[in-house]
Design brief:
Keywords: Membrane, Transmembrane, Transmembrane helix. The protein contains 8 helices and 2 strands.
Length: 274
């Protein structure tokens, strides 16, 4: 509500006309921007500390590539959400729905894989419980307790940063998933609206949905049969259609007549009254 109160009513009305879900999407985009920015800062800080104290014995790089991998989808989420918010308030229009779905799907897939790598390759899984101190309070570090806080405090500092960055990344992933579901629902609504308009055109426009010859229907998905209420054909026309259509010869009544052949029927001349 605080966000919408700062926007003029004219802009709010234009946004509501072009995109009825602009409020919920804008809030999700703003949350994604802040969460992604915090996650990027946390990962960047942990990478700097890691490279100054440790290295990877396996993998594509000796540096902290497991924490660097999530930076790509997080930056993509930050940039695309920022572009969406700017486009909403500057142009008062939404971005193409298919573009949103493709971008969100890319971010969701890549960010999920990156979070898994960051969790498996982090330092916090190697934490060890606190060691028992000797009688004089000293701690003797060896290969059995080398990953304890007393022997290697830097591991805990980097691990805490990694945990915080992963948590923020998970929230970014959830927000992006919600935005994806909204875009998919918008796409389904758009398709349903087009199909509804197509049915209306087929019902009210006899020539719509036909090919070059009369009666050769084009295959429309979900189309319905059309029935035109016409007067029965003349004698000549009735003799040609009497075997196909069981219609009444009484020309004073209006009966349902369905075109199912490729021949154009003839109709009786209009009756004039004195």
């Amino acid at each position: 509500m605080a966000l919408t109160s700062l926007i003029p009513s004219s802009i709010r009305s234009e946004l509501a006309t072009s995109d009825p879900r602009w409020r919920s999407k804008t809030i999700l985009h703003l949350i994604t921007i802040n969460l992604a920015l915090v996650a990027i800062i946390l990962f960047a800080t942990s990478i700097e500390l890691w490279d100054g104290n440790f290295f990877h014995a396996t993998g594509p790089s000796r540096g902290d590539w497991t924490d660097g991998f999530p930076l790509a989808p997080l930056c993509a989420a930050f940039i695309f959400s920022s572009a969406s918010v700017i486009n909403t308030f500057v142009r008062q229009k939404r971005l193409p729905i298919l573009l949103n779905i493709i971008t969100y799907a890319f971010i969701i897939i890549i960010l999920f894989v990156a979070i898994v790598f960051a969790g498996v390759g982090g330092l916090f899984p190697h934490w060890q419980p606190e060691v028992t101190r000797s009688s004089n309070g000293a701690v003797i570090c060896n290969s059995l307790n080398m990953f304890t806080r007393e022997c290697e405090p830097m591991i805990y500092r980097i691990g805490e940063l990694q945990i915080a960055a992963i948590i923020f990344s998970i929230f970014v992933w959830l927000n992006t998933t919600f935005l994806t579901l909204i875009s998919i629902q918008e796409w389904r609504d758009m398709k349903a609206g087009k199909n509804h308009q197509l049915r209306k055109l087929e019902l009210y426009n006899p020539d719509y949905g036909h090919g070059g010859r009369t009666g050769s229907r084009l295959p429309f998905r979900g189309s319905v049969g059309r029935m035109s209420y016409l007067k029965p054909p003349s004698r000549h026309g009735f003799s040609r259609y009497s075997r196909t259509h069981n219609v009444s010869t009484d020309t004073s009544k209006t009966v349902p007549f369905v075109f199912v052949t490729d021949q154009e029927p003839s109709y009786p001349p209009p009756i004039r009254y004195r």
